[in-house]
Design a protein that fits this description.
By secondary structure, the chain is α/β, with parallel strands linked by helices. The protein is 51% helix and 12% strand. Residues 22-38 have low confidence and may be disordered.
Length: 189
């Protein structure tokens, strides 16, 4: 659990030390139902594989950031009726930083990998800050697509009709992400 606090503390310190990435003034607790819905820009976008980390690491990180009034997007906040992909892509673009929680099944989700590609486009084009967290997965397995992480990616390719361009963009984004300094949490294979 101390690794969780290390990740949280690092994100919090980063936001405090960088005035252009400060906690949002309009947090959900300051909005009332009588007010018209305000478009909220998120400080942090969390990219994660729900089946691996939603109940546990990701929910705890989200709650801790929320307690510090750091407006954090988690995919259960999607507006009903919105086209999910357009809503997520817009949220990624508007976030000040992204936290990618890599886990054993992250690469088996086309959705997660599309988020990852978008995050790295925002990093390249807009200077978005990216913090990778390797949750029970070795960063070298993410970078080289080996071990169970590589197996998850192979299953995705086998089960989905992906173009060669999509596969290459996913590989490039995974390599870029695993090359960043991040946190290696929990036991990995």
């Amino acid at each position: 659990m101390s690794c969780f606090f290390e990740v949280f503390a690092y994100i919090w310190r980063f936001i405090i030390r960088n005035p252009h990435v400060s906690p949002s003034p309009s947090t959900p607790s300051t909005l009332t139902t009588a007010q018209p819905q305000v478009i909220k820009y998120h400080d942090v976008f969390l990219s994660f594989r729900g089946e691996d980390t939603r109940v546990g690491f990701t929910s705890h990180l989200h709650a801790a950031l929320d307690r510090k009034q750091i407006l954090t997007f988690i995919d259960d906040q999607l507006v009903r009726g919105d086209e999910i992909s357009a809503s997520l892509l817009r949220t990624i673009e508007e976030a000040k930083l992204s936290v990618i929680v890599f886990s054993a099944n992250y690469a088996s989700s086309k959705w997660c990998l599309e988020e990852l590609v978008k995050i790295f486009k925002c990093r390249k084009n807009n200077g978005q800050i990216v913090f990778p967290v390797f949750y029970k997965v070795d960063p070298t397995h993410v970078r080289n697509l080996t071990g169970s992480f590589g197996g998850a990616f192979a299953r995705l390719i086998r089960n989905k009709a992906l173009t060669l361009e999509e596969v290459q963009s996913f590989r490039d984004a995974l390599t870029d992400a695993a090359s960043l300094s991040g946190w290696n949490l929990g036991n990995s294979e």
